[in-house]
TrEMBL record:
Coiled coil: none annotated. Residues 169-425 form the EAL domain. InterPro entries: Cyclic-di-GMP_PDE-like, EAL_dom, EAL_sf, GGDEF_dom, Nucleotide_cyclase, Rev_trsase/Diguanyl_cyclase. It comes from the Bacteria. Gene3D superfamilies: 3.30.70.270, EAL domain. SMART domains: EAL. It holds the Pfam family GGDEF. GO terms for molecular function: cyclic-guanylate-specific phosphodiesterase activity. This is Diguanylate phosphodiesterase.
Length: 448
């Protein structure tokens, strides 16, 4: 967190999301200003203490320029974000950048009697003109600030022409927009989650798939990167929730009732409209909320001290009856403290702890500890990346609730998933170490 500013980037995203909701209701705009200190030789030579004092002074000057309804946040190093709600036109942003320039150009910062010139540049974006996704608006403001610095200008408002893209990237963006406009090439494929103790498949994960051409599948990470780059995360989430509910409806029509998991980034939890979008999708297709599970990825992005907005969103999701899961548990910043903070009903052990479990005693101990402690807390556990019989047998012996991986099946279209469930050759036996064959757990699976 930057000295002198109350909160950081993720809190800024929450503020922008809240102001966007108000703007849609009253027909006004929301502006985002990015103020950055440019690299300077003199500033590089400041001591750590003087550097902190400089940042605090810059933040205080910016705060004095704010209107009553504006908010100031700390971004990256020596970067500040200003959120300006209730705008009637972009002219307010231009005026704000002029005032910021004047405030620093006319009066250098004084540190312990030493005058320090602070070279600043500003960039601005505005909703709805430049999109309605909080992160996209911040990124657009940053791009505008970079363009202003390159042009030796005090500030600029974002323009799409500031971004140069390759012909292939431009083509992918056009096709992805078409997908959300009614082109059905974007799909959810289902990968089974097998319950080995009961010998059945009662859940699946919905994985994003996009087939551009017969032999051209766009990888899911590329799809998500494009969505974020284009500022379409909110639109994508609306599509995702509707598609998940429609998938559950199609399965019900085929006589199949399961729990469906879909991935949601932790940053999406700063979007106050997510619970409403989920609720609308479930109501549209008449789906019981208990059939939907949201797997939260990138949980390290959640600020423990400034997660008021996230707490509200999680509470509203739980009120709907949605279950929550932590994806890729054991990696990055995911930890047992996240289980308490997020109040989840499931966690997924990351495949990095699963792939060598048959050969690594350390990995077996880690998996056993996670499963035992989770069960004590009333949390179910899924192991992903299960690709062979020995791994499945060990996890079954450890009482892991669900197994998922290529040993059973790859992700497949809904129709193929229903057929897979009906295949008698899918039944297989897991030889659990230390048990007789008669005690073996039966599980349903098929090689993908």
């Amino acid at each position: 967190m930057v000295h002198g500013t109350p909160r950081g980037l993720l809190s800024a995203l929450t503020e922008i999301s809240d102001r966007l909701s108000e703007a849609r209701a009253n027909g006004t705009g929301v502006g985002v200003l990015c103020v950055t200190v440019l690299p300077d030789v003199a500033l590089c030579r400041l001591s750590l203490e003087r550097g902190h004092k400089l940042e605090a002074e810059v933040a205080e000057r910016l705060r004095r320029l704010l209107r009553k309804q504006d908010m100031l946040f700390g971004g990256e190093r020596r970067e500040w974000l200003l959120v300006l709600p209730g705008l009637q036109s972009a002219a307010v942003l231009t005026l704000a950048m002029m005032k910021i320039g004047q405030a620093f150009n006319a009066h250098p910062v004084v540190l312990e009697g030493l005058e320090v010139e602070v070279p600043l540049t500003c960039g601005a974006s505005m909703a709805p003109e430049h999109g309605e996704n909080p992160l996209h608006l911040v990124q657009s403001a940053r791009i505008a600030a970079l363009a202003a610095a390159q042009a030796n200008l005090g500030g600029q408002i974002y323009d799409p022409g500031m971004e140069q893209v390759s012909p292939r990237l431009a083509q992918l963006e056009r096709e992805l927009r078409a997908c959300f406009a009614g082109d059905n090439r974007l799909e959810l494929h289902l990968q089974p989650k097998v319950r080995p103790q009961a010998g059945k498949c009662d859940a699946a994960e919905g994985l994003l798939r996009w087939q551009r051409l017969p032999d051209d599948w766009v990888p899911a990470p590329v799809i998500i990167s494009l969505i974020d780059r284009m500022g379409m995360r909110h639109l994508f989430n609306r599509w995702l929730f509707q598609r998940a509910a429609h998938t559950l409806h199609s399965l019900r029509e085929a006589g199949v009732v399961i729990t469906l998991s879909i991935n949601l980034s932790a940053s999406d939890l700063y979007d106050a409209e997510v619970p409403d979008l989920v609720g609308q999708a479930l109501a549209t297709w008449g789906i019981d909320a208990r059939q939907l599970c949201l797997e939260i990825t990138e949980t390290g992005m959640i600020e423990e001290r400034n997660g008021e907005g996230v707490t509200d969103v999680l509470h509203r999701l739980r009120t709907l009856g949605i279950s929550l899961s932590i994806d890729d548990f054991g990696t990055g910043f995911s930890s047992m403290s996240r289980l308490q903070q997020l109040s989840v009903q499931e966690l997924k052990i990351d495949r990095s702890f699963i792939q060598d479990i048959a050969r690594s005693e350390k990995d077996r101990e880690i998996a056993a500890s996670i499963i035992e402690l989770s069960h004590r807390l009333g949390i179910s556990v899924t192991a992903e990346g299960v690709e062979d019989e020995p791994t499945a047998a060990i996890l079954t012996a450890l009482d892991c609730d669900h197994l998922q991986g290529y040993l059973f099946a790859r992700a497949m279209p809904v129709e193929a998933f229903v057929t897979w469930l009906e295949q008698p050759q899918g039944w297989r036996r897991i030889a659990v170490p230390g048990r007789t064959p008669d005690e073996d757990q039966v599980r349903r699976g098929a090689f993908g």
